[in-house]
Amino acid sequence: MATDLARARLLTGGEAMVEAMRQIDPDVVPVYPITPQTPIIQGYAKAIADGRAHGEMINVESEHSAMSAAIAAAAAGARTMTATSSQGLALMAEVVYIAASMRAPVVMALGNRALSGPINIHCDHSDSMLIRDSGAIQLFAESAQEAYDLTVLAPRLAEHPDVLLPVIVCVDGFTITHSAEPVELVADEQVRAFVGEYRIPHPLLDIANPTTQGPFAMPDYYYELRRQQAAAIEGSLAWFEEIAAELQELTGRRCGAVETYRLDGAKRALVCLGSTAGTAKDVVDELRDAGEEVGLLRICSYRPFPADEIRTALADVDDAIVLDRADSPGGGPPLAVEVGYAAGPVRSHVYGLGGRDLHPADLRDVFAGTAGHYVGLRSEPCPA
Amino acid sequence: MGGLKPWTALEPGGVVVRDDAVQPVTGGWRTGLRPEADLSLCVDCLLCWLYCPDSAVKLDGAAFAGFDLDHCKGCELCAAVCPTGSIRMVRDGD
Amino acid sequence: MSRLKTLVREEHGVPPLRGGHSLCQGCGIPMVVRTVLDSIEGPKVVVSATGCLEVATTRFPTTAWNVPWLHLAFENAAAGASGVEAAYRALRRRDGLPQDDELTIVAFAGDGGTYDIGLQALSGALERRHRFVFVCYDNEAYMNTGIQRSGATPFGAATTTSPAGSAVLGKMQQRKDLTAIAAAHGIPYAAQSAAGPHWQDLSVKAARAAKADGPAFLNVLADCPLGWGHEARVSPSIVGGAVESCFWPLYEIDDGRWRLTYEPAEKQPVEPWLREQKRFAHLFQPGAEDVLDEIQRRVDADWERLVERCGGPA
User: Fold this and answer.
1) Dihedral (C-alpha) A167, A173, A176, A179: value to the nearest 10 degrees?
2) CA nearest neighbour of C170 among C160, C162, C179, C178
């Protein structure tokens, strides 16, 4: 995923997503602030105030209303985007399920942040995990560049006639949202041409063809409606790959459901989501230089879960080590359980909860097998 | 209503296109009485039309044109509000 | 043309809400819905909160709605309406709608979805000045889930979560004055009305609400034969009785000016009206006199304050 430094601008992940939003120029943007997604909605608001974006921005009174207004606007016939994190996602969780079941192609930026309690504004993936069963698509960016690329791609995926689902672009809170990196942008008119016109099968505001949307279903139909929805997200993986290939023609960079890094001949491999992959790649390089056969599998599409791709990538890896930046108290960590389900037994670690940094030394310990299950946890007193 | 549709035959999102929906018959809710209008007393005030919770009063333009017995539930509101006594409840099936 | 015939004409032969739904026999809600929608000119789009109206009219794959209709969840009818309204404005601006007609967005929610769980979204939508009409069909309890008390349930009424028993005589809190709360947002139009024998009052107000340049709020009494405990066929007199006793006054706040739209020729005591409903039956056992007195006292005090606010008796 090479960014051409000569053509790049120095942008935080948040700023990069603002650029993407501005270029997409959605019709309706209902938002509510929460750290660390605020730079996104603030940047978009400034773009509106300066006349560089033209949507209806609605500063709603809670995240629950943000997603509610978003579904309504999308159903009405308007391209709609929003953003949230952590508690905001938790509050709107009910409506995220509804967005998916109503097949509303809303695009949402998620600044991954730890769920309370205690209240914490820093990065982990517990918020994404909360809604993993919602039916919404979740794509995890590794960097500010990928945050931009995935946001540009998202409306195409969400609005594909065989998909019609909310797409959530997940970006590590602070690590991606607030950290400046080189980001290469696509030209405004190229993004407009790429995302195209918003079209849905039954716009609510088509008065001549009235529809009833958001029905009540009894046991005789709920199951079938849910199965239909599941089929849509399952099928979306293929459309993601196809649309990513099309985007590659504009950017030279290829997004994919997974990214393999030096997995050829690797006997041990880390598996992770998000920006931790950057640190992991450095450690993989270092260990490879020392003659160790190690590699990395980064999962970008968490939902839909690319089980086949993961199984294939890990086929010759003896020791797959899944890193979860979330926990499921009393059960297996979510990513480890799912990778294990797809590809056979794995080693599992939890790390980075509530924004705890993960250092290269931690990953060396993980590869060596000397790290505890909760990597980097303080089990002894330590000077400040 | 026809049989139940398979999951592959449903509109995405459970959208119901008005023109494709078939309404259930709720006339079976009546428990023995149905409304009947004596047209010689009816003054086309249309109060029954407005009061009916089931939209079961038919109109011809702005004139009373009978009851939709497929959907009348026999609540008797039409008889209660009719100002001329035109509407009475009679035995269903008569 | 008579007002009623105007309503007929607005339907163009197609009622916004048709038969085949599973609302109770004699339910008070459809009359509210049809009176409101038929009093508004031009195409309408409806957003509904979860509740009796929504559940009973949209069992998949049927629908009783002949107008575009959207339901999301229980507490967010006003947020949904906000989203539709923003989309409408955005699409109109870029000529992205299949028709040119000006349409009116009408949200319907029960008292539960308005006074309680829906209050936040309503308040936000009113504050943001979206142009839509929010109609609360107030039957004074969570009827759809089995008659539980809401913030709109009157003092002394029995519900399944505020039952009357030997220790407690029903709901012991006074209900909220939601019409005043809505008006306090400074919106162009808010009103309290009822269907039944006061359908004309409702019709006039619905038309005014739709013409407001901003959000409008209608709090409409809708009786529930099952929840209130009376036969369907006496609904008109039950609704009428609520108004004649000043238990449910009819008034409007038009651009901040409070105005009574109906004054009973003779204000009736509230007790006979309470007697007609099983939800108040326990108040007529020995030992409940204080509650009855308090109900009358409060109706009187509220009415007096309202009359004064409206600039004295008409």
Assistant:
1) 150
2) C162
Distance, in Å, from the CA atom of C223 to the CA atom of C238, rounded to the nearest integer, reads 8
Residue A122 vs residues A114, A277, A326: alpha-carbon distances, Å: 6, 18, 13
Per-residue pLDDT of chain A (384 residues; tens, 9 = 90+): 578 888 999 999 999 999 999 999 999 999 999 999 999 999 999 999 999 999 999 999 999 999 999 999 999 999 999 999 999 999 999 999 999 999 999 999 999 999 999 999 999 999 999 999 999 999 999 999 999 999 999 999 999 999 999 999 999 999 999 999 999 999 999 999 999 999 999 999 999 999 999 999 999 999 999 999 999 999 999 999 999 999 999 999 999 999 999 999 999 999 999 999 999 999 999 999 999 999 999 999 999 999 999 999 999 999 999 999 999 999 999 999 999 999 999 999 999 999 999 999 999 999 999 999 999 999 999 998
**In chain C, which residue's Cα lies nearest the Cα of B29?**
C25
How many residues make up chain C in this entry?
314
CATH code, domain with B50: 3.30.70.20
Which single residue is written with the structure tokens 């086309």?
B44
CB contact at 8 A, C123 and C178: no
Residues pairing with A168 in the sheet: A108, A138
Instruction: Say what the pLDDT of residue B1 is.
Output: 46
The answer to whether residue B68 neighbours chain C at the CB level (below 8 Å) is yes
Q: What ipTM, to 2 d.p.? A: 0.96
CB of C285 within 8 Å of a chain B CB? The answer is no
Q: Which amino acid is at A290?
A: A
Report yes or no: A52 and A95 within 8 Å, Cβ to Cβ.
no
Query: What stretch of H or E contains A321?
Result: strand A319-324
Q: Which residues contact B9 (CB under 8 A, 6 or more apart)?
A: none
All domains of chain A, ordered by start, with CATH?
9-205+215-251 (3.40.50.970), 259-368 (3.40.50.920)
* Whether B8 and A228 lie within 8 Å, measured CB to CB: yes
Neighbours of B81 (CB within 10 A): 19
Bridge partners (DSSP) listed for residue A31: A59
Alpha-helical segments (H) within chain C? 3-11, 29-38, 52-57, 77-93, 119-127, 178-183, 199-211, 235-244, 271-275, 289-309
Name the neighbours of C, counting chains with at least 3 Cβ pairs within 8 A: A, B
User: Helix (H, G, I), strand (E, B), or coil: what is residue C257?
Assistant: strand
Q: Which two tokens stand for residue A148?
A: 């931009």
DSSP A35-99: TTTHHHHHHHHHHHHTTS--SEEEE-SSHHHHHHHHHHHHHHT--BEEEE-HHHHHHTHHHHHHH
Q: pLDDT by residue (tens digit) across C192-251? A: 999 999 999 999 999 999 999 999 999 999 999 999 999 999 999 999 999 999 999 999
A294-299/A268-273 β-pairing: parallel
Q: Which residues contact A219 (CB under 8 A, 6 or more apart)?
A: none
End-to-end CA distance of chain B: 26
User: Domain total for chain B?
Assistant: 1
**Cβ distance of C60 and A69 shorter than 8 Å:** no
- The answer to the question of residue B71 being in a domain is yes
Question: Could you tell me the domains of chain C?
Answer: 3-309 (3.40.50.970)
Chain C residues whose CB is inside 8 A of the A69 CB are 79-80, 82-83, 86
Which domain, by its residues, includes B32?
Answer: 25-91
Question: How far does the CA of residue C30 sit from the closest CA of chain B (Å)?
Answer: 5
Residues 110-169 of C with CB under 8 A from A: 120-121, 123-124, 127-128
* pLDDT tens string A224-252: 999 999 999 999 999 999 999 999 999 99
